[in-house]
Write a structure and sequence with these properties.
This is Sporulation integral membrane protein YlbJ. InterPro entries: Gate_dom, Spore_IM_YlbJ. About 45% of the residues are buried. Helices cover about 80% and strands about 0% of the residues. It has 18 helices and no strands. The N and C termini lie far apart (about 50 Å). It has one domain.
Length: about 400
Amino acid sequence: MSSAKLKTIILAITALFLAVSIIAFPKVSVDASLNGLKLWWNVVFPSLLPFFIVSELMIGFGIVTFIGVLLEPIMRPIFKVPGAGAFVFVMGLASGFPAGAKITSRLYEEKKLTKTEAERLASFTNFSNPLFIFGVVAYGFFHQAALGIVFALSHYLGNICVGLIMRFYRPNERSLSEKERATPAIFIKALKHMHRERIRNKQPLGKMLGDAVQTSVSTLLMVGGFIILFSVLNQLFARLHITDSIAYVIKHLLLLLHFSPDLSKGIVPGLFEITVGAKNISSLQAPLLQQVIVACFILGFAGFSIQAQVASILADAKLSAKPFFIGRLIHGTASACAAFVLFQYVDIKQSSFQVNAVVESLENHILPENWTSYLQIGSSVTLITLIIYILTKAYANMKKI
């Protein structure tokens, strides 16, 4: 039997098994779907939509070209990507998964990156949202705002390590961009390139804005589908005791590392969805250092849910997701190692001035109040945007008739 036929049979059996499981456990499936939908509706959609729209407009206005020329002398020697990669890096860091992959794919479609550069860039420009790291994981789950410094620095350093390693991915390919040197005239040259890019894009502002909204909403609808799907899978696997079987194997790996075997109860769900994994890890009876190291690995690994979202976005642009998958393993491992080192230098009870400021603000319940208001606003933003999106699509289809 050929490998293609075997793959077809395996995929068919897997799909049939999932369909039967959903039918067999309808309440579990519906509850999990609702939880995933609430997460997407209240948080993910309103959080990512502004970043997606702004990034589309910045590409159209030539701002990304300006940043690309200006930062080419920095990004090219360090990461072997064009200067525009700095824009992707910052936007991915600020907005969280899967913004880095989305913007990278867009730049590749605009021919600002080669295929290899795009795959290389996507591997290290996807991050967990800073609000999620500091507010949800550090304060909400671990009840130690100071740990946010450890989580964040470990997470960012881990991704930088991925970038430094991935610079050797297909190292001999030639770049589309010019090799710039850091000279006083580079700023003027960057402005000229930005103006040329804006003139080249002759679309009116209204058309650009409309296209940016439609593209962003379409991507976020896909992201929502993956969130709901993996929320259901996570609960079904737990109900079918598949999670327990995987945890049994991971227990032995943890014992080899002299870690508490109970941490496997948080690692397995974390392999599918980082929020559930981080929450479970924080509630287990294990040394805090071990909990932090494992949580940092989960944050770097990102979970199969996010990996599937990124793979889908890259596939639409005909980019390989293999460098991204390899990067998640490197990211998780490097973040865990960084957490082990950084934890020794962070006093959880008596932290630095910056950490104390965060702790004080959180203890005054600023975060919970803002978070509740944010959820209410987020729900309204999602509803209004989807209504506008549906009306716009309907109007466009009517014009075609």
